[in-house]
Specification:
Pfam families: RWD. This protein has helices at residues 11-15, 20-32, 91-107, 114-129, 163-176, 198-210, 253-262, 266-272; strands spanning 2-4, 38-43, 46-56, 62-72, 81-85, 133-136, 139-142, 150-157, 180-186, 189-197, 212-215, 221-223, 227-234, 245-250. By secondary structure, the protein is α+β, with helices and mostly antiparallel strands. α3 (91-107) packs across α4 (114-129).
């Protein structure tokens, strides 16, 4: 295994250990692409390397993508295996990005493609992850062509250390994006239930994941890293529309359950909330 922690390392040092057939196909990639960090693993069955790139997403926020390419020995006659990870995207969104990259890779079969794939994801990430999807328990089913209509998002937060500031920030985001719903506290349970345009829901998620909304144990500002998307789906006819965004506290589970039932969300409550008490 050859580990490259400094991208300024002489290319000759890299190429000396790379099989000639693979060298011809990745040389341009190494010389052109700006890479923050790369781990190159020379293996008997090919080459693996990991790349981190920062991509501008909705609201001009930076999304850090971690891409792992595994090139077989007969690359580019055979497609690379690609893995996509990001702390700022859901598992479903990462899968969407991977699928789109593989689709693009098929268009470049038999020719060097990694550099083109990196450029493609930098240019098209917005289009890939803004596609509408219904997400429950992070299992997503794409529902293309349904940008219109009202959507609903249920989030679970592990904690709020700077509660007053956090609550104020959530209220501001909801107001700015014209979202209605509830920020709900019941014991240690913290839930955010939002309704609004699909695009506004997506923008809220990005803000929630990328902004420094809380503080860590030392009091330093930090991003929300322990949020879970419990459900994201289109509002159905039986669901009641919230008229405003409110912050509410409940002393018992029954009170919280009644809030969901009043909004026609009994199934949503029974599917996700009781398990949070375990």
């Amino acid at each position: 295994m050859l580990i490259l922690k400094n991208v300024n390392i002489s290319e000759h040092c890299i190429y000396a250990s790379v099989p000639p057939n693979l060298l011809r196909n990745i040389g341009t990639f190494f010389s052109v692409l700006h890479i923050w960090k790369m781990i190159l693993c020379l293996e008997t069955h090919g080459i693996s390397f990991r790349i981190q790139i920062s991509v501008k997403e909705l609201l001009d926020t930076d999304v850090l993508l971690k891409l792992l390419f595994r090139l077989p020995v007969n690359y580019p006659s055979a497609l690379p295996d690609i893995s996509v990870n990001s702390d700022q995207l859901t598992r479903a969104q990462c899968m969407d990005v991977k699928e789109k990259l593989l689709e693009q890779a098929k268009k470049h079969l038999s020719e060097p493609m990694v550099h083109d794939l990196i450029l493609w994801v930098q240019q098209h990430l917005k289009d890939v992850i803004k596609q509408p999807a219904a997400v429950c328990n992070e299992k997503t089913t794409l529902s293309k062509g349904k940008e219109d209509g009202i959507w609903m998002l249920l989030l679970h937060l592990d904690h709020m250390r700077a509660k007053a500031k956090y609550v104020k920030t959530v209220e501001k985001w909801a107001s700015d994006l014209r979202l209605t719903g509830r920020l709900m506290f019941m014991g240690k349970i913290i839930l955010i239930l939002l309704q609004g345009d699909r695009s506004s829901i997506k923008e809220y998620l990005i803000l929630q994941k990328t902004s420094k909304v809380d503080v860590d144990s030392s009091g330093k500002k930090c991003k929300e890293k322990m949020m879970r998307v419990l459900c994201e789906t289109e509002v159905q006819s039986q669901h009641k529309r919230f008229q405003m965004f409110e912050v509410k506290e409940y002393s018992a589970l029954e009170e919280l359950q009644k809030e969901f039932e009043t909004a026609g969300l009994t199934t949503l409550f029974s599917e996700f909330v009781p398990s949070l008490l375990k």
